[in-house]
Each structure stands twice: as structure tokens, then as C-alpha cells.
Amino acid sequence: LSPVCLGSLRRAASINAEYMGSIIEGDSDVSRIEIKKVQGDILELIVSYLKHHKGKVPQEIAKPIRSVKMEKIVEDEWDAKFINGLSKKSVFQIILGANYMDIKSLLHLGCAKIATLIKGKSPEEIKKILSEEDDVPEEKQ
């Protein structure tokens, strides 16, 4: 379970008001919420992402992915550093959490990161990359 200070999440999540509204609907006195399907450390990362963007939806990531470097894919350099600083396991957990919380821009950022790992690889290489145990966060690609 991941209890979070509602004020912090509410301010950060103006990017996703529909999700927040559905959580607190009918309970104006709520001061804490629990997001049961997202681990606390991953929820902290999600809140960090939301706080950085301050309610503004970031520029959409162009598809198909045209580079293996996140810095060339995203408009905001912070996004590239944020996602590149995470282990592969954390990126997958971010994808799951962003999907659960309906934060499309973060979901797309995580998916783009995974796409950069497998772009141009053979099926065997892709299978190996996706089945490998967790790794340390990347330095610079």
C-alpha cells in the first residue's frame, strides 16, 4: 500500500484531474489516499514526474521512435534524465503505475525508453534484453 499526502498528489496531478477526481469523489474531508496497485517508491517517482510538469502535458513523443537516445526523442531534457536514471525494472513499474493512474505522458515516456532498448535489435537480442535480470541505471547512452 502506498499512502500519499493528498495535497501533494492533488497539486501534482492536475495533469490528470479525471483520475484524481474519481479517487476522492464524495469525500471532501480526505487528507490521505491509498493507491494500492503502485508501490511507494514508484509512486514517489510518479509524483516527482507530475510535480516537474506542474500540470502541463509534455510534448507528445513522436512515433515511431527515431533514435535510441532519449535526449533526441523528448522535448524536455529532464524527462530524458529522469527515465534514463531508472533501472529497467523501475521503468516497467513506472509503465504499470502510469497506466493504472492513467498518466498517458508518463506511460508513453516509459514505453519510449523500452523501445530505445530494443530498436534495431534481432528477435533473439530483444528476448535477451527483456528477460535479463535488473540492471543498474544507465550512465549516458
Short description, anyone?
It contains eight helices and two strands, in the order βααβαααααα. It has helices at 6-12, 17-24, 40-53, 70-73, 77-84, 88-100, 104-118, 123-131, and strands at 3-5, 32-34.
Structure description:
The protein is mainly alpha-helical. 55% of the residues lie in helices and 4% in strands. It has helices at residues 6-12, 17-24, 40-53, 70-73, 77-84, 88-100, 104-118, 123-131; strands at 3-5, 32-34. Strands 1-2 form a two-stranded antiparallel ribbon. Helix 1 packs across helix 3, helix 3 crosses helix 6 and helix 6 runs antiparallel to helix 7. The chain is globular, with a radius of gyration of 16 Å. The protein starts with a strand and ends in a 10-residue tail after the last helix.
| Counted beta strands | 2
Share in helix: 55-70%
Which consecutive residue ranges, at least 5 long each, have pLDDT under 50? none
- Tell me, rounded to a whole number, the average pLDDT: 80
Strand order of the largest sheet: 1-2
Q: What count of helical segments does DSSP give?
A: 8
Structural class determined from secondary elements: mainly alpha
Give the overall shape: globular
Helix and strand element order: EHHEHHHHHH
